[in-house]
Amino acid sequence: MTKILLALFLFTTNVPMVYAEVMNGHQVRKLYLKRDDIALVRTAVGIATIIQVPDHPTSVVVGDLNAFKVEYLDAAITIKPLNASAKSNLYIYTEARRFNVSLVTVAQGAADFIVYLEPERKVLAPQPKSQVERWRGFRTEKTNGSLKMKIRRLGVVADYLAVEFSLSSDKEMKFGPDWIWITQGGKSVPIQGLNLSAVKIHPGKEVLGGLMVRREDLLNHGPLVIEVRSSVPISIKLPGVNSWMK
User: Fold this and answer.
1) How far apart are CA 214 and CA 182, in angstroms?
2) CA distance 140 to 149
3) Helix H segments across 12-168?
4) Which fold has domain 133-243?
């Protein structure tokens, strides 16, 4: 059984969104309707179209009795047009609600075989994943000439690994965000977020920074290396990924 899911708009008053499922070449559609929506059902001479409602219909009212033959059994209503230009409206009353239908007659190849009418489903907006955030202290530092880098702590934020660090110098220097790199096994790892409190280092004042890398971008569970690639390079080895939360 081949199933193709199509999203179609019906060009009628109070247009409902229709989800159509095509099975073995015969069209079967399921419509989710608000109370005042009008469902378009396509019939054809020589075809019996079934309209299925969720519960037992208590009555069925067709606008033009000379245009369609309407029968119902349990929760299924069978519609047959009596001529090639037949069209009418149809009301289906159940114990729970009323369904509004517009009936048209088309060529056999475009006719509906089965149409399921359902109340509109209440779709809840997906809830954001909780941003699990855990940190561990990890203090180490390295100095090259006048430039010093300190690692302050390591963390896991949802699907990311995070590093907080600071940079300082005993003389004034400009600092470029492109100086900061993360590598693993000698290969660079994409940095997904980099925050800096300043882009110029003043003597006696630290520049605070934070960066995040995505766990799925890591090559393995081995250690990461944070690097400052400048005229005074610094490289600090961080723990293996598995040990960040220990």
Assistant:
1) 11
2) 9
3) none
4) Immunoglobulin-like (2.60.40)
